[in-house]
Amino acid sequence: IMSLFGEVPQATPVAVFKLSNDFKEDANPKKVNLGVGAYRTDEGQPWVLPVVKKVEKIIVADNSLNHEYLAILGLPEFRSSASKIALGEDSPAIQENRVGAVQCLGGTGALKMGAEFLRRWYNGNDNTKTPVYVSAPTWENHNAVFANAGFEDVRPYKYWDAEKRGLDLDGFLGDLESAPKHSIFVLHACAHNPTGTDPTHVEWMQVAEVMKRRKLFVFFDSAYQGFASGCLDKDAWAVRYFVTQGFEMFCAQSFSKNFGLYNERVGNLTIVARDSDNLKRVLSQMEKIVRVTWSNPPSQGARLVAITLNTPELFAEWKDNVKTMADRVLLMRASLQAKLQALETPGTWDHITQQIGMFSFTGLNPKQVEYMIKERSIYLMASGRINMCGLTTKNIDYVAESIHETVVNVQ
Amino acid sequence: MLARPMKLRLIDAINVVSLWAEIFSWWSEVQMGPPDPILGVSEAYKRDTNPKKINLGVGAYRDDQGKPYVLSCVRKAEAQIAAKKLDKEYLAIGGLGDFTKACAKLALGDDNEVIKSGRNITVQTISGTGSLRIGANFLSRFHTEARDVYLPKPSWGNHTPIFRDAGMQLKAYTYYDPKTCGFDFQGALNDISKIPEKSVIMLHACAHNPTGVDPRPEQWKEIADLVKKRNLLVFFDMAYQGFASGDIDRDAWAVRYFIEQGHNIVLSQSFAKNMGLYGERVGGFTVVCKDAEEAKRVESQLKILIRPIYSNPPMNGARIAATILNTPDLYKEWLGEVHGMANRIITMRELLVANLKKEGSTRNWKHVIDQIGMFCFTGLKPEQVERLTKEFSIYMTKDGRISMAGVTSGNVGYLAQGIHAVTK
């Protein structure tokens, strides 16, 4: 019998996962994985946060808990405490009852829900032609999330200046000025992925001014709050500033990195609306979208985060754990930069310490990246992006020497 | 275009805020979504202060005290998992391998030729809904010869919006016979014989939701035959394996028969009910392919579909399910507990009919016992349902569907009283 799927083509694998696969299969004992974005300890191991272990024990011991369905929009105490993390305990928007949230499957799920809602209800009904702008470069899945939600026009906005290895502010502002009215802009709240380059406060204020004047939609992607500077409030500055500017906006939050809960898929779509009536209607429509996608979200991770955020001692311990991770990353940045300078590696390497968060855009070109992988068994993305968490005190010399050798020998 | 100074003063920010504070909202045209009919039942139940109230809308198992039931094998699995001190690294897009392999074996049988030849691809999904959605998306993208999905009449309320949202068109085939509260076999065959080739036909593997009416094996055989003649793509929804008859293999019989007959089916599985893992969102989606090579291609495309929705699935529930399925003692215990749940349901069906007779009802209630699984299509009309709710605080959906899981030895007498009162 002819197969119905005879014509289904083999899809190319998702790059970042293929990289991890290749790393796994490499027999070189000196190999280093600077690919996928997950935190590693100085021993190169995954780290289950101490506070997470504590709360897991609490959950296991609590016989009153069961595995019943959560509500469609998720666990209420998770949603509200997660939104507070993004917007601040004293957020006037929260006090004015115009902030709501949808618990989602990780940051991806939150982006997905937001995208689906916008496609149905923003700028008309089912307006698939509304342009969606994502930074150049951006997390590779942004494009697919919005395209799959039905948006026909997903375009880049200027962001990374490869020459000066920093933010292309003029280009960014220029794209904001020329974007069709009502365009949607996906903004990285902090620790831009993959460049690690964030706008300064003044630069954010300029962005906000243009977005407001030109009626552009603000969609924050916040996957690294706390992880960037080590301080939750500092990392949320941009999101909170935009709220004070009166925007109605979405903020997709991930707790994968800052709670180390990668595989429990803990995310939250925070919605800031004009008022509680608009919010109510928005949430009712979000429910419809959730219902046809996953019905209701998984309970374990949300429970864990809710208990932590709502228990003062645990909350303090969590903030501490987050700072531990952020500090190690900062240390590795400083070390790598110092070593490259000591080696007198051609080029400037200040961007390594100026950039922030898990990733660094090294500036290595595709040929150089290939050399690093093939000749040195150091795995990084074709874009030159490295995960700082892959660096340890034990491998940093090898990595620095390898970068040096690569830059000197490969152009 | 206005030239604007790039420096921003505080006073500008304040002026802009007050201007903005005026009424404009992106969402003024967003309508209030209609309330969910099933959830609405539970909410009304919660508000009711009558101590005798009964909630028969709930689609989750309850024990004989009316309480949620966490399976003992689940608690044991959780303890085992906790002791292992596993990390929380991302799962692969397709999910936990230990889970997906066991999930396929559970549905198809350990020794199934499909699994042995590697011609199935099974991915972990967000319970049954997530599985159906991935399936719908996959068919929408790759099954371009036909856009129509044929659902039994009636079907689970969420089937329609899921397939529609994925871009498929919904049609129906006769299934339930309201005159007998049973299966309209001839009606189904008639309708199926007219379905255009290559269309997708949805079949409930067991414990049909919402009617509880399942075909008998010899009827399944004829359906399989006809479906093959019509060259239809079979989509099985199996949300109640084990939960229907109490026997895992018996409940999967139809799925396995179809495969044996050469249908390369697609299959959705849920572990919400049979493992009580509702909120952990544990499910699987399987495509039975022509061969292992095709399975690899299909797998690669399923990953492309999954990644922009939620990247990769949640670990906790899948880990629990995998532990149970792969640990002989726990697996045995699980079979016993599933059997226990199914038995309690069957007992409640019998008790309800017995009590109705005791009340003096002369109606034919045989269908209550003939139907299977969590739900029972009582045959009550909307006006009768309304009276039951208003006068007796007995809550169910307007179509007369009751969740047998909400019936207990403590409330079955009162339930019979109420039903008799509105039907005599």
UniProtKB/TrEMBL annotation, chain A:
UniProt main location, coarse: cytoplasm
Pfam annotation, one family: Aminotran_1_2
Reaction it catalyzes: 3-sulfino-L-alanine + 2-oxoglutarate = 3-sulfinopyruvate + L-glutamate; L-cysteine + 2-oxoglutarate = 2-oxo-3-sulfanylpropanoate + L-glutamate; L-aspartate + 2-oxoglutarate = oxaloacetate + L-glutamate; (2S)-2-aminobutanoate + 2-oxoglutarate = 2-oxobutanoate + L-glutamate
Gene Ontology biological process terms from the UniProt entry: aspartate biosynthetic process
Record keywords, A-Z: Amino-acid biosynthesis, Aminotransferase, Cytoplasm, Pyridoxal phosphate, Transferase
InterPro entries attached to this UniProt entry: Aminotransferase_I/II_large, Asp_trans, NHTrfase_class1_PyrdxlP-BS, PyrdxlP-dep_Trfase, PyrdxlP-dep_Trfase_major, PyrdxlP-dep_Trfase_small
GO molecular function: L-aspartate:2-oxoglutarate aminotransferase activity; L-cysteine transaminase activity; pyridoxal phosphate binding
Enzyme Commission number(s) from the entry: 2.6.1.1
Subcellular location: Cytoplasm
One GO CC term, this protein: cytosol
PROSITE patterns, sorted: AA_TRANSFER_CLASS_1
Cofactors demanded by this protein: pyridoxal 5'-phosphate
Aminotransferase class I/classII large domain ranges (all copies): 30-403
Gene3D superfamilies: Aspartate Aminotransferase, domain 1, Type I PLP-dependent aspartate aminotransferase-like (Major domain)
Subunit structure: Homodimer.
Other remarks in the entry: In eukaryotes there are cytoplasmic, mitochondrial and chloroplastic isozymes.
Family according to the record: Belongs to the class-I pyridoxal-phosphate-dependent aminotransferase family.
UniProt-recorded name of the protein: Aspartate aminotransferase
Native source organism of the sequence: Oncorhynchus kisutch
Phylogenetic lineage: Eukaryota, Metazoa, Chordata, Craniata, Vertebrata
From TrEMBL, chain B:
Name recorded for this polypeptide: Aspartate aminotransferase
GO terms for MF: L-aspartate:2-oxoglutarate aminotransferase activity; pyridoxal phosphate binding
Places the protein is found: Mitochondrion matrix
Lineage, opening ranks: Eukaryota, Metazoa, Chordata, Craniata, Vertebrata
Gene3D superfamilies according to UniProt: Aspartate Aminotransferase, domain 1, Type I PLP-dependent aspartate aminotransferase-like (Major domain)
Reactions performed catalytically: L-aspartate + 2-oxoglutarate = oxaloacetate + L-glutamate
Note from the entry: In eukaryotes there are cytoplasmic, mitochondrial and chloroplastic isozymes.
GO cellular component: mitochondrial matrix
GO biological process: L-aspartate catabolic process
Keyword terms of this UniProt record: Aminotransferase, Mitochondrion, Pyridoxal phosphate, Transferase
Family under the similarity heading: Belongs to the class-I pyridoxal-phosphate-dependent aminotransferase family.
InterPro entries the UniProt entry points to: Aminotransferase_I/II_large, Asp_trans, NHTrfase_class1_PyrdxlP-BS, PyrdxlP-dep_Trfase, PyrdxlP-dep_Trfase_major, PyrdxlP-dep_Trfase_small
Subunit structure: Homodimer.
